[in-house]
Every structure is written in structure tokens, then in C-alpha cells.
Known about the structure:
By secondary structure, the chain is of the alpha+beta class. The chain is built from 15 helices and 7 strands.
Amino acid sequence: MDRLKDIGLHLLHWYNENKRDLPWRKTKDPYKIWISEIMLQQTRVDTVIEYYLRFLKRFPDVFKLSEAREEDVLSAWKGLGYYTRARNLQKAADFIVKNHGGVFPSTFEDIRRLPGIGEYTAGAVLSIAFNQEYPAVDGNVLRVISRIEGLEEDIGKEKVKKGIGEIVLKMMPEGNASDFNQSLMELGALICIPVNPICRECPVNGFCIANLTERQNELPFKIKKEKNTEPIEYWVAVIQDKHHILMEFRSRESLLGRMWGFPMIEKNETEEFEKQFEEKYGLKLKKKSVIGTTKHVFTHQVWKMIVVRCELEEKHSFASELRWISEEEQKELPIPTAFQRVFKLLDNENGWEQMELET
DNA sequence: CAGACGTGGGG
DNA sequence: TCCCCAAGTCT
């Protein structure tokens, strides 16, 4: 008897009985599987579902995606985060159209070469869409296999990931790469969850070293990263005329680069508000009132945004990355969540006024 | 290899 | 409120 193969069979059977009904499980179209896999990177299933459906309606195949304006792709992505994913998606679509005649490649090497596709995603697309026997080692799989095998090594190490991939291949029931890989991830999502896994309901609890030795909360071993930095404080300028608001197309190098935000400068003890806005944007501003503050937490930094209503001093020209934006445009443009928060503040402000009128 | 890169949900 | 995380990739 082969322990690893036994485990594989149990997982596959469990998956067939317990898998969730997710939109990307209704298709084998590699294009759609690919879109789902990219969206699911570091992102929750519940969040992805609506984006996935909307994205495919808008870009139903690789040609449509390839032809689209980058701004429209980003707009479909806004709020999902990690916006490089959206740009790479389009670059890859372009490449597939130009070099593969629009047919999604079906070898590991060709898929792995596409921008935005790493070791995990290549294995996922190849196994899920083409049922080829490659491992797809994501965070779930690292956790599930570490626990089953009682692995003590740091799962952040490339060597460990490779080793876990090999174990996955040994478990994989013949001819079932697609369902088996998904079964590992599904188990990790539903049962073998990071904290307090539900071992009682696990189909392989009898095989699982972590469960048998009651170490399910100690595994997998992961080196903790440094966390919460001090917030960086910004002055954020809200400059409105009758029906427009002045927004900035952010520079390529900046965080949230090549998307739309508000003119803003880092709060600085030595330099004045007015001087900084003039130097950076050519904007002559008069500070009117503080609308409020809002915080946005990124993985690696925190913004504290002090939102200030400003008036333009006089008619003058300003930096070309600034543009008057109408309300309709506001809905279409790729404006990330960090700046949607500012609109929220403005809405609240109006809401307060209305409440005051009513009472 | 470590750090950049978003966001929202749950304990 | 705070902290951790979730189907990673690129540099």
C-alpha cells in the first residue's frame, strides 16, 4: 500500500462530494481559468467572484482583452488591488495573439513565460484547464502538505516549495490532475484553514502527522515578516468647480502609479502646504477647511490622508498630469480604493449637510 | 533573497 | 482597534 496515493484518493473523493460551486469551475476554457487564477492571487474567493463575472463579460476572449485600452482593463480591475496583475494580463493576451495565434498555449514552458504567470499559476492553468500532471503549489497546498507530512521547514524557502510539489505529484491520482490539485486547495480553504483547522471533518485526518501529534496550529512553519510601519501623513487636496474635481494621473514610479488619484503631498514640518503644492503641481491653492482624515493600509506602508478643501487662487496653468474630471468620468476611470475613500468623505460631508437640513 | 505590491474580512 | 491573512510574481 502506498500512503501518499491513498491520501490522494481520499482527497479526490472528498472534493467530488464537497466542492463549492464556483463560476470558474463551470469551464475548461484556459482563458477563463487563467483570468480566475490571476484574480485569485492573494485575493479571497468571495471578492473575486463578481470581478470575474464582470471581467469576462467585458473581455470574453483573449482577442478582446488584447485589443482593449489599458485604462478599461484597469477600470475593470479597480478595487481588486495588485494592479500589475491587470497590466500583465493584457501584455500576456497581446503575446498570445501575436505569437500563438490567439490560442492559449498548452505547454508548461510557454505558459510560464507569460508575464504575471509564475510557478504556481503555470501549474494551476496546465492542470485545471488541460488536466496535465503538474503540481500547483499555493499557500493552501503548502499548509495542507506541511501538516499532513509534519514538515518543520520554513515554507517560504524555494527548496521547500519544490519538495512539496514533488509530494503533490506522488499523491496525484492518475488522470485527475485538475480535480486533485483543486482538492488540495479546497481542503485548505474549507477544512485545513490557517488557524484552528477543522480536523474532525478532514478526510485525511487519519494520515495527518500534524493532527496525530496535535501540532495543527504550529504548522506550517513560517518566518514572520516585519509589520506595521508608522503612517505617512499626506495633505490631499480637493479642488472642485461646479461639476468637476481636479485629479492627478499618478506617475509611473509611484505607488498606485498610472492610475488616478488626488493631488497630494507628504506632510512636512519644514515646508508649507502652499509652497509644496505649487512646486509639485504648479497649483496655487488656498486652504479652506479640513474635510476629514482617512487611513489606507497597504501591505508595506500606511497612508494617513488629511483631506483638505482648497480653492484655486486664480486662473493659471498647472501640471499636465492634472485634469478636471466629471462625475461620469469618475465612474469610468481606474481610481483605486485608497482614493475612493476620499470620495466617501465627500459623500459623508454632503450627507451631514442633508441631515442637518432635515432636522 | 527580501521587499514591493492592495484590499477587505474575520478573530 | 489591531493583527493576520488570501488560489503569488517580479526585481
